[in-house]
Amino acid sequence: MTPKTLVLAALVGSVAATGALAKGGHGGMRGEMPAFEELDANNDGQLTLEEIVAFREAHAKQRFAEIDTDGDGQVTREDVIAAARDKAGDRAEKRAGRMFDRLDANEDGTLTEAEIATAKAEHADRRGDRMERMFDRADADGNGAISKDEFEAMQAMKKDRRKKNRG
């Protein structure tokens, strides 16, 4: 699956992404990362991999529900294209259509959360678990949790990397 396919999958709520079906493996959490406090579900001042994965999965379900405007548990090609256009502008329409076609495993003209989950699992099998690797890099002291300081350091590093890539 290409990075473009992963972007669409995140868009339609694999998420999970992760999610991960989002380009870069963030399971639908592209762009701005949620605040530390949003991810810290038990408010203990530490992020575990489980908290991040749970947040990512909830985000993916929410995004799928937003795109599934009639609530039937399926999104059509048109739903996906409209959501892509809303999120990324008109130029995303053609790309979203091609990505939809690749994800529609049974070729019935709709995507279900199960089809997205299958595509996500296949991607994870081929590329390894990027979320775990990202978590391990952020967990500078190796204690199995990310502190607020470690989280902020990770954010700063990502911001610096984006600047370098743009400039």
Automatic annotation (TrEMBL):
Keywords: Metal-binding, Repeat, Signal. The keyword Metal-binding applies. Gene3D superfamilies: EF-hand (1.10.238.10). One of its GO terms (molecular function) is calcium ion binding. Residues 55-90, 126-161 form the EF-hand domain. Residues 1-22 form the signal peptide. InterPro entries: EF-hand-dom_pair, EF_Hand_1_Ca_BS, EF_hand_dom. Residues 138-167 are annotated as: Disordered. Pfam families: EF-hand_7. This is EF-hand domain-containing protein. It comes from Pseudaestuariivita atlantica.
